Amino acid sequence: MDLADGILAGDRLALARTLSLVENGTDEGKSILSILYPHTGKAHLVGVTGASGTGKSSLVNQLARYYRNPAPDWQPRRVAIVAVDPTSPFTGGAILGDRIRMRDLAGDSGVFIRSMATRGSLGGIASATSAVAQVLDAAGYDLILIETVGAGQSEVDIARLAHTTIVVEAPGFGDDIQAIKAGILEIADVLVVNKADLPGVENTERALRGSLNLAHPLPHRFMHHGMIEIVPEQTAASAVNEPLWVPPILRTVALDGTGIPKLVEAISNHRLHLETTGGWEQRERWRLQTELDLLLQTTLMDEFRLSLPEGAYEHALQDMFERRMSPFQAIEKLIDRSRGRA
Amino acid sequence: MDLADGILAGDRLALARTLSLVENGTDEGKSILSILYPHTGKAHLVGVTGASGTGKSSLVNQLARYYRNPAPDWQPRRVAIVAVDPTSPFTGGAILGDRIRMRDLAGDSGVFIRSMATRGSLGGIASATSAVAQVLDAAGYDLILIETVGAGQSEVDIARLAHTTIVVEAPGFGDDIQAIKAGILEIADVLVVNKADLPGVENTERALRGSLNLAHPLPHRFMHHGMIEIVPEQTAASAVNEPLWVPPILRTVALDGTGIPKLVEAISNHRLHLETTGGWEQRERWRLQTELDLLLQTTLMDEFRLSLPEGAYEHALQDMFERRMSPFQAIEKLIDRSRGRA
Questions:
Q1: Which residues between 288 and 307 in chain B have a beta carbon less than 8 angstroms from any beta carbon of chain A?
Q2: Which strand (E) or helix (H) includes residue B47?
Q3: A contacts of B100 (beta carbons < 8 Å)
């Protein structure tokens, strides 16, 4: 049985192998992805992001546990966790994190956990995350929880790959002008104040509510910073005609599970909202566009590198170093050389 | 007088205008940059990064103030502050931040403050930051303090553009497995525990020291994730033959200036270390390589877009959306079309 068939039949070993092939950008991984692609599009991709120390990992673990053993009126769901750690290729933090998780959720065939320790070239991590999510989607996981650390551009890129984005804060993090500057709130569909048993939770909530009013989450969704812009009229119309989604602010204590059922409900409500307003389809389009752009970028860089005569790149760098050529002049020369014009 | 001459003559208005042209990626900006480029290479680029709420902005302000009015045995230096806020194009946080800074440092012609609110396409922010730093370098600022929010890939990219990277923590942020995962420590040359008057400062320091031992900062410096890899033998040799730089851990209270002279000393020591070990030249090369790669990426994407027949991109996206084509298949088709092959 080949790997793609194995994945569709629920073989975990085939899944793990394929994920490695895909993460490493191998040709075999790419062809399996193309076979699996028609089987994707069913999973709910949920991004979970926020600063270090807010307890995101514990929260994601609790979510997974609840989806497996929900309240009596809910169906258990199959859950995959993708832990993305873009800045840490060397510490082995991802592996350590995995071990701690595994103790929690090991032995449940309805849960699959994957830590990505991809040593990202520019844009590479979001691309790899997207590919990994596709494989898990084809493998039949109902929810894919994508956990990212920090609040940088790569988190925003990864959030663009999700249907629902949860931003996690904790008391002591939100009561500062920095929290407003962090801007990650603009991509939030659900806000969580974790560690809500700590003092200062009211302050954090108040700061979040204030920042939220500044952040105008909806117009943001209708912008795309990639190759093309979404037609403004179309989106402006949706903004007027359809009910807005106001990101709820929820309190949780991940360590003991407080607030998890309400969070699961909010995630589910957000999906329902997207489906009833046409937002699901719109996000699918944005997700795919982000993916296409990321992949295009990587592909173009790889091709360009191969097209250069040996030593041309190093030569351009040396010219820049000796201030004989500005970066823009160096680029021009490299492009000429890649086309055999110099 | 044209803008480039104006900048070299110390005209602040010419500087501000050029920075806007450069930030917006205009052709005029590019040609001014090429004129200015031979005048660059003197400034000390210092990146200041860390999570939200650690008090980075105040710290950067205090640094600038100290460089202007140093201890009697130090020369005052000209300082530029570049505040990069990659995730917040909508809140106006950057502008708000500026106003608060301006009250502090306004009226001093030896200080220039610039907030970048660039709405970043992939890789675009680091590229724009680099260009802005070049202009400020040519304008004769001795120190360029580049402040970034968060701990994502873009911060790491921006850190690669600096000679010295300061990572700021605060009590309550470092005593968690997340702090190790954040990985930003690997790029640190100087570690600062700000808000050191708060309880828990010893714990934060201890956690940092522990993480630092895991993080192996030196080998990281000898890796490059861009187009080419630095030759390992050369770098391994330097690692063996030259004295290592062990990132110092310093305590500051930015609000009242405690610890700022020691921090300035550490920054200066790090520059001295780089200069005496050949590390300065090596970092210059890495910085320029990062810059070249970022710029190449943007340029290739722009060119590719222009080379596509009208509607081709949207068509590929629609094929992906309807699951008729996988992302890799879509890319292949687009590349064929851009070359007139389909």
A1: 288-289, 291-297, 299-301, 303-305
A2: strand B44-50
A3: 177
Under a CB-based contact definition with an 8 Å cutoff, are residues A91 and B217 in contact?
no
Residue ranges matching CATH 3.40.50.300 in chain A? 40-299
The mean pLDDT value of chain B amounts to 79
Which residues are CB-contacts of A231 (< 8 A; sequence separation ≥ 6)? Answer: none
B313 CB near a chain A CB, below 8 Å?
yes
Counting Cβ atoms within 10 Å, is residue A243 exposed (0-12), middle (13-18) or buried (19+)?
exposed
Instruction: Test B301 with A155 for CB contact under 8 angstroms.
Output: no
Helix %, strand %, coil % of chain A (to 5): 55, 10, 35
> CA angle A282-B123-B33, nearest 5°?
130
Indicate if the pLDDT at residue A87 is higher than 80: no
- Residue B156: predicted pLDDT: 66
CA distance B79 to B130: 16
Kindly give the residue spans of alpha helices, DSSP state H, lying in A216-326.
217-221, 232-241, 260-277, 279-307, 312-321
Element housing B130 (H / E):
helix B124-138
Strand ranges in A62-162 using DSSP code E only, listed in sequence order? 79-84, 111-116, 143-148
Q: Inter-axis angle of helices B56-68 and B260-277, to 10 degrees?
A: 80
How close B71 comes to chain A (CA, Å)?
30
CATH 3.30.450.40 corresponds to the domain B40-279? no
Q: How many residues does chain B have?
A: 342
Residues of B in contact with A173 (CB under 8 A): 51-53
For the cut 70, the answer to whether the pLDDT of residue B198 exceeds it is yes
In whole angstroms, what is the distance from residue A30 CA to residue B298 CA? 24
Query: What digits encode the pLDDT tens for the residues B104-154?
Result: 677 788 999 988 865 544 456 777 888 999 999 999 999 999 988 654 555
Spatial CA neighbour of A174 closest among A155, A149, A193: A193
Instruction: Please give the residue of chain A at the shortest CA–CA distance from B318.
Output: A285
ipTM of the complex model:
0.76
Q: What is the DSSP string of B237-304?
A: HHHHHSPPP---EEE-BTTTTBTHHHHHHHHHHHHHHHHHHTHHHHHHHHHHHHHHHHHHHHHHHHHH
Q: Which of residues 124-153 of B touch A (CB under 8 A)?
A: 125, 130-131, 148-153
Chain A CB contacts of B296 below 8 Å: 301, 304, 331, 334
Per residue in A220-243, pLDDT tens?
Answer: 333 333 333 333 333 333 444 446
CA geometry: angle at B42 spanning B36 and B44, to 5°? Answer: 120
pLDDT at A174 over 70: no
For the segment A5-28, what is each residue's pLDDT rounded down to a tens digit? 999 999 999 999 999 999 888 889
How far away is chain B from the Cα of A160, in angstroms, using its nearest Cα? Answer: 12
Q: Count the helices and strands in chain B (H runs, E runs).
A: 15, 7
CATH superfamily of A40-299: P-loop containing nucleotide triphosphate hydrolases (3.40.50.300)
Interface test with A, best of B223, B281, B326, B338 (most A CBs within 10 A): B326
The reported pTM is: 0.68
Residues of each domain in chain B carrying CATH 3.40.50.300 = 40-279
Q: Over the stretch A89-129, which tens digit does the pLDDT of each residue have?
A: 333 344 445 445 556 677 788 999 988 865 544 456 777 88
Which residue is associated with the tokens 């929880």? A145
Using CA atoms, how far apart are residues A36 and B128, in angstroms rounded to an integer?
38
Contacts of B323 in chain A (CB under 8 A): 37-38, 40-41
Per CB-CB distance under 8 Å, the chain B contacts of A184 are 87, 150
- Give B224's pLDDT tier (boundaries 50, 70, 90): very low
